[in-house]
Automatic annotation (TrEMBL):
This is Uncharacterized protein. SUPFAM superfamilies: DPP6 N-terminal domain-like. It comes from Oligosphaera ethanolica.
């Protein structure tokens, strides 16, 4: 079955295994857009076990895959957070579990050489200017589809409120600094007494378009082994100042699935079902209180991963599988709100299906805005698919 009758999608990775990149809020292409980062894994039926490795490699535009190294810090949804370094164009970073220190680190891999260094903490995301990374405690993330098997959950429901939180990493020097502590977040929490006896953690940190601010999620649940969580979205300058909670749980409450920075330094893009007419794609300025949203487009399906094109004129939007097992990918014209269907992907759910090992499309732009890649199991095995617009 073709993905689209008109658009020429091509499976970029081989059919000899499961390949993917990971999340949608980061760029997998190197500086000249000739190499795409990829992971190769042996299975998609269960969560990773302690000690289980994923292979890291690169694939060129002709579909030639080259294995390079491996990692014990990976998950089915976000991979190992691999990213190309801007100040070292032949190097990329990836998270790994260090056996000697028994902790998570981010290693630096140089093409043609191998591992040439590391950062003392795992990197969650990189700033667009390439100078900064953001880190958090992966061990506290309870949902294993978004965390690492070797990052074992702690027994304590709450961390050290003054020593843990969101960390800024200087990717040039390796310096690590706590910029916002849990205690600071709790002091700004809309309902602080709701945190009593709750397990709390951070997730989904990302830099804005000009590398000046960070956005992340503060989550809480009563049982991390069976989490049903509440979400509060926080933002701050990269030095920790101007801390805000622009999107408390009241706005989420099952009505928002994904969030990302928008086209300007204070714009946030989300999908929301606030009107009860299905998910719609909306933006708002984080500084405006109470929140005032502007609709970009009607929605295309549930649980959309949204991301603006590099020039801000278009937007990619995917969906979770519908009742027939198909995922949609759309191209949104920002000026008109019109949606062009780019693809119709099959999503297999076999016996013993595990939701945390599902394969979301996670659409990603190339830096020049001319190429789109997604992760899909359209042909029965997880692979990276490419469309040149």
């Amino acid at each position: 079955m073709r993905i689209h009758d008109t658009y020429e999608w091509r499976r970029l990775t081989p059919a000899d295994g499961h390949y993917y990149f990971g999340y949608y809020d980061r760029c997998p292409w190197n500086h000249d857009q000739s190499l795409h980062l990829a992971l190769r894994i042996d299975q998609c039926e269960r969560l990773p076990e302690r000690g289980e490795r994923a292979e890291i490699g690169v694939v060129d535009r002709a579909g030639t895959y080259t294995p390079l190294t491996s990692t014990r810090a990976w998950c089915h949804q976000q991979g190992c957070m691999s990213l190309w370094l801007k100040h070292r164009p032949d190097c990329f970073i990836y998270n790994d579990f260090d056996m000697d220190s028994q902790r998570l680190v981010s290693r630096i891999y140089q093409l043609g050489t191998g591992v040439v260094g590391e950062y003392a903490v795992p990197i969650y995301a990189m700033s667009p200017d390439g100078h900064w990374g953001v880190s958090l405690n992966f061990s506290r993330i309870p949902r294993r589809g978004y965390s690492y098997a070797d990052a074992v959950l702690p027994w304590e429901p709450q961390p050290d409120l003054d020593q843990e939180g969101l960390f800024l990493v200087d990717l040039h020097t390796g310096a690590v600094k706590l910029i916002v502590s849990y205690r600071q977040m709790i002091a700004l929490h809309p309902v602080p007494f709701d945190l009593e006896d709750m397990y709390i953690w951070l997730n989904h940190a990302i830099f804005n378009c000009d590398s000046s601010r960070l956005l992340w999620l503060f989550r809480q649940c009563s049982n991390p082994l069976d989490p049903s969580w509440r979400t509060h979205m926080y933002t701050a300058n990269i030095d920790g100042s101007d801390l805000m909670c622009p999107l408390p749980h009241f706005y989420w409450n099952g009505m928002i699935s994904h969030q990302i920075w928008g086209r300007t330094p204070r714009e946030v893009l989300i999908d929301a079902t606030w009107r009860g007419k299905g998910a719609e794609y909306v933006v708002f300025d984080e500084r405006t209180m109470p929140l005032q949203a502007t609709r970009i487009s009607r929605g295309m399906g549930p649980m959309a991963h949204l991301i603006f094109s590099p020039d801000g004129t278009k937007m990619l939007a995917d969906s979770y599988p519908d009742s027939f097992g198909f995922q949609q990918l759309g191209l949104v014209d920002v000026a008109t709100g019109g949606i062009t269907r780019l693809g119709h992907f099959r999503h297999f759910r076999g016996k013993g299906y595990c939701v945390d090992t599902r394969c979301d499309l996670h659409p990603r732009w190339s830096p020049d805005g001319k190429t789109v890649t997604v992760d899909s199991i359209h042909d029965g095995r997880r692979g990276i698919y490419m469309l040149e617009l």
